Amino acid sequence: MGDGGTVAGDEFSELLGQLKERSGLSYGVLGKRLHTSTSTLHRYVNGDAVPTDYAPVERFARACKASPEELVELHRRWVLADARRGQKAGEGAAGESSVSEASVDAVAGGDVVGSGGPEAERGEAADAPVARRRRTVVLAGAAVAAAIVSAALVVNLVPGKSDDGEGGKQSVGAAAQTVDDSPGASESGAAKRRSASPSASRSGTPTASSSASRSAGAGAGAAQDSGAKESASAPTVAVNPYKWDSPCSQHYLVDRKPEQVPPPPSESDARGWVSALGGVAGGQQMLALTVQGTGKATVVLEALHVRVVEKSAPLAWNDFEMGVGCGGGVETTSFGVNLDAGRPATSPKAGQRDFPYKVSESDPEVFYIFADARTHNVSWYLELDWSSGTKQGTVRVDDKGQPFRTSGNVGRPAYNYPLGDSEWGRNEYEPDIPG
């Protein structure tokens, strides 16, 4: 429920309706711009359905000229409405003796978020439940980069020692995909997102045992057992390493001639495009992290660390810009990370407060990380330290078990794809990426 007894889903649809009415655009016009059926938009605005992913919501809001403040508020309302829908779905499933085969297939097939195609093609699967994110906090930097949401990863914890040598914490294993925009995705990500139980297997939500602090004393065992239902395990982290602040801000380095490179993708198709070409983020890479607790207990996010796996000379490949003639991105508070530094670290900028932050199952947190690499090709990942009561641990954040890759692009041949053209051309104003 929202303030004053208003249902969270009603708050969300109400703001959508206000933006739509103010824009003066018809459902038909919006549907064409968003590549979405008018009936689907009707259902969102009327409160009959809540989009599984926030990406179509943001596209709707931007088409209606929403302000930065309205975008943040809409995101908050979407998270609450989405979480409420997930709770209702869980209650309904408990009261039924069977589940339709179509419903099972929709979840197991990972149809909640498609590979960048129109929402109309995803049908009812686009309305499947998933609980995620809320407030937006941005991490920026002279070292990591720019983009927007279409893939999400949930990390698994496995026993081990943290890279920073702190014996009281355990490191985590490779991330497991839960929402993927890459073609042929078959993992049942939606089914994993439905479960927030601390007893989930390694392929789903992190288990309490793998994230517990080794420093917890024996005397605390009984207290932990008595309050097990209220205690929290490691938070889940959904990460999108293909988020764009704007198309013009995103560059990719590709080891191919321009005539061998297909037209630039939309943001939602970026993962498939980059993977098929073996590309690497050039100059900047933007990550969106959504951190959420797995129970009622509050989880404290103590710190976010940058871990460099390998650093070498920047890639001598061609640079391809994803958009031409773009406006500036939305101004947000940010943290800085410099991958070229000897020991990269996050640091607050523009008045943004530093860690710690708090999250719970009903109160997630969204972090944007912008990182730059100018003079190196860097393979890296993040580690998120957390604690809850006597428990503590470290979550590794990476790209499906692989490190993120960001390479400097200064001096590389610059290509763009102007609207109306049918091929890549050398940037006439800056034929080489400026230093």
Automatic annotation (TrEMBL):
One protein family per Pfam: HTH_31
Domain named HTH cro/C1-type: residues: 15-71
Any one Gene Ontology molecular-function term assigned to this protein's record: DNA binding
Keyword line: Membrane, Transmembrane, Transmembrane helix
Disordered: annotated segments: 89-129, 161-234, 393-435
Residues annotated as transmembrane: 137-158
Annotated Low complexity bias: 90-110, 196-226
UniProt protein name: Helix-turn-helix domain-containing protein
UniProt organism field: Streptomyces liliifuscus
